[in-house]
């Protein structure tokens, strides 16, 4: 290790020497181990021998499955639902609290594995980036969930799961929400997908800023029909949502085309509903096509529903709850049932790994009208509290996973990147020149509870580290300059809502110090592998049929940038 790469003295004192001897430099070869954060090296020191034995057993098991499938690894279908926290899907005993049910997701849970302690990031874009790259969003610079034109997004330097699986021979398709940027290099078709249909932005534009939502009072200030602009001097201040790009279609590294929206059109809830049904139908169509090919496939369907806030499009409520989000969740559950039925119909269900999970907690700003609530854990979307980062997650893979299994081991959304790469026999394509937060949780997935390889999580709100979870304890970082001995610590078994803070001193003098040491190691690793910036460019590059109003919006943005 070069002198420049050495950690500071205070950091070296907190990390076992084996860690600093085992971390490869950026220039080392691809066959070197994946670079993980310091905490994983500490666990590896304690459990490495046993884990190595487990890995040999798991590798042999996966090889048997591939051999029985003509040498091919499993197909993967990844379904990520928006703003659904823990207790909102797949748990029938909570129907009495929710006032709605999700029978298809519940059946999937019965047929597969329930991940009872899944941690995500605190909002949409960060979770999706973490899942795609195996890296916490803060490392990529994409820490905000943006709803309007921004001119930034996921850098081409990042390596996505789609790119890793493509290298291993998978055909890759993305349908539905993307939300990783509005610039050309950030689009799904430039981030490893062979084919994609997706909206450039997200539901802030489509479900809240549409004209139906404003008329119903769910948002305000956008429609010129509902205000007089008498004293509005700056005509660039308010974004015209109807001038933004909506859904696009394209193939890998090729141009995109906006579809199903014409010049001068005004976006409404009807457009949104048609768009979502189109992505579902496209998913069914792509399953048909992919099942006839010779390659294993990775099909990613990220619905924008159940985010929905309008009531006028509800013909007749199907749930006792009756809120727009509850109704939409019930509807999407039915669509998931269609996808699962299609896998059965095509005869590929047994060796297709299906994931269904939420991306973060509920949209608490709208809970009184949407039909959601924070239920078990306190907090929601954008919060570092458990309610913001705990979601239901289910995996079904009939030839490999025991039906009805439940695990309480901790897992983080980044782990799916590394775990799916291993299942796909694609680990060699995970980059070794950067820090990867995702851990290989294949042993837990196949062997069950107590075979997990994580007992910690670092939780950010945007770019700010807000809390650290270790085992059953959660440490809320104190304000700068405060003594960590007085920082709040929560025992999540005794106080899952984090509403009765206990000073660190309650757990014994210095109990806060192990958390502070974790923070120091974590920040110290950033000195060796610094966080990167997201990419910046003119928005909507590579879309070949921009409407006149969209072209004017881009021109206005370009003119406003400092020279």
Q: Count the helices. How many?
A: 18
The fraction of residues in strands falls at: 15-25%
The name of the CATH superfamily of the largest domain reads Alkaline Phosphatase, subunit A
Overall 3D geometry? globular
Average pLDDT rating: 90
**What's the architecture of the largest domain in CATH terms?**
3-Layer(aba) Sandwich
- Provide the gyration radius in Å: 23 Å
CATH topology of the largest domain: Alkaline Phosphatase, subunit A
Number of domains: 3
CATH class of the largest domain: Alpha Beta
Question: Class by helix and strand content?
Answer: alpha/beta
**Separation, N- and C-terminal Cα atoms:** 42 Å
Number of strands: 18
Contiguous low-pLDDT stretches (5 residues minimum) are: 1-29
Helix content: 25-40%
User: What's the story with the biggest beta sheet?
Assistant: 11 strands, mixed
Task: Give an overview of the whole structure.
Strand 6 and strand 7 (256-258) form a beta hairpin. It is built from 18 helices and 18 strands. Helix 11 runs parallel beside helix 12. The model is unreliable at 1-29 (pLDDT under 50). The chain has 3 domains: 9-63, no CATH class; 77-231 and 243-456, Alkaline Phosphatase, subunit A (3-Layer(aba) Sandwich); 464-528, no CATH class. The two termini are 42 Å apart. With 563 residues, it is of the alpha/beta class. Strands 1, 2, 4, 5, 6, 7, 8, 9, 10, 11 and 12 form an 11-stranded mixed beta sheet that branches. Strands 13-14-15-16-17 form a 5-stranded antiparallel beta sheet, covered by helices on one side. The chain has helices at residues 9-12, 17-22, 38-68, 95-98, 103-111, 124-133, 137-140, 161-167, 203-208, 211-215, 269-291, 324-346, 367-370, 386-389, 415-423, 442-447, 512-528, 548-560; strands at residues 75-81, 113-119, 152-153, 171-176, 195-199, 247-251, 256-258, 297-302, 352-358, 390-396, 405-407, 411-412, 456-461, 464-470, 473-476, 488-491, 502-503, 535-536. The longest helix has 31 residues, at 38-68. Its cofactor is Ca(2+).
């Amino acid at each position: 290790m070069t002198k420049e790469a050495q950690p500071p003295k205070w950091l070296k004192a907190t990390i076992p020497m084996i860690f600093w001897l085992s971390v490869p430099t950026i220039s080392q070869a691809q066959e070197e181990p994946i670079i993980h954060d310091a905490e994983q090296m500490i666990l590896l020191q304690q459990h490495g021998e046993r884990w190595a034995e487990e890995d040999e057993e798991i590798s042999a098991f996966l090889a048997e499955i591939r051999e029985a499938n003509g040498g091919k690894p499993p197909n993967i279908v990844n379904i990520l639902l928006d703003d659904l926290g823990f207790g909102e899907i797949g748990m029938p005993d909570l129907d009495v609290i929710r006032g709605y049910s999700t029978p298809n997701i519940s059946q999937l849970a019965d047929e597969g594995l329930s991940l009872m302690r899944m941690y995500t990031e605190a909002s949409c874009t960060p979770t999706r980036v973490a899942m795609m790259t195996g890296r916490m969003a803060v490392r990529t610079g994409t820490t905000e969930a943006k709803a309007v034109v921004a001119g930034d997004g996921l850098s081409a330097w990042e390596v996505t799961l789609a790119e890793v699986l493509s290298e291993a021979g998978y055909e890759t398709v993305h349908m539905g929400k993307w939300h990783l940027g509005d610039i050309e290099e950030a689009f799904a078709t430039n981030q490893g997908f062979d084919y994609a249909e997706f909206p450039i932005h997200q539901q802030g534009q489509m479900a809240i800023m549409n004209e139906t939502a404003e008329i119903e009072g769910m948002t305000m200030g956008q429609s010129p029909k509902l205000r007089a602009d008498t004293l509005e001097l700056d005509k660039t201040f308010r974004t015209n949502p109807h001038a933004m790009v909506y859904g696009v279609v394209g193939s890998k590294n090729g141009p995109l085309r906006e579809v199903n929206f014409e010049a001068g059109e005004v976006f409404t809830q009807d457009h949104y509903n048609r768009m979502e049904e189109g992505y579902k139908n496209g998913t069914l169509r792509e399953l048909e096509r992919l099942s006839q090919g010779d390659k294993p496939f990775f099909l990613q369907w990220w619905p924008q529903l159940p985010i929905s806030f309008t009531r006028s499009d509800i013909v007749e409520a199907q749930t006792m709850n009756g809120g727009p989000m509850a109704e939409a969740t019930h509807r999407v559950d039915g669509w998931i049932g269609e996808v699962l039925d299609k896998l059965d119909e095509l005869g590929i269900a047994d060796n297709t790994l299906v994931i269904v999970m939420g991306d973060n907690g509920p949209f608490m700003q709208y809970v009184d009208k949407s039909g959601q609530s924070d239920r078990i854990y306190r907090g929601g979307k954008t919060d570092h509290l458990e309610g913001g980062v705990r979601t239901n997650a289910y995996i079904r893979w009939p030839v490999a996973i025991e039906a009805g299994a439940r695990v309480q081991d901790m897992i983080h959304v980044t782990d799916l990147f590394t775990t799916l790469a291993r299942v796909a026999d694609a680990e060699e394509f995970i980059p070794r020149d950067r820090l990867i937060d995702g851990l290989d949780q294949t042993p837990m997935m196949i062997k069950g509870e107590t075979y997990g390889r994580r007992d910690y999580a670092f939780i950010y709100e945007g770019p700010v580290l807000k809390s650290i979870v270790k085992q059953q304890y959660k440490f809320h970082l104190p304000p700068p300059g405060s003594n960590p001995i007085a920082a709040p610590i929560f025992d999540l078994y005794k106080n899952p809502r984090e509403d009765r803070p206990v000073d660190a001193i309650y757990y014994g003098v210095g109990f806060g110090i192990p958390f502070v040491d974790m923070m120091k190691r974590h920040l110290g690793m950033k000195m060796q592998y610094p966080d990167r910036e997201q990419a910046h460019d003119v928005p909507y590059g590579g879309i070949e049929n921009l409407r006149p109003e969209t072209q004017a919006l881009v021109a206005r943005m370009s003119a406003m940038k400092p020279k």
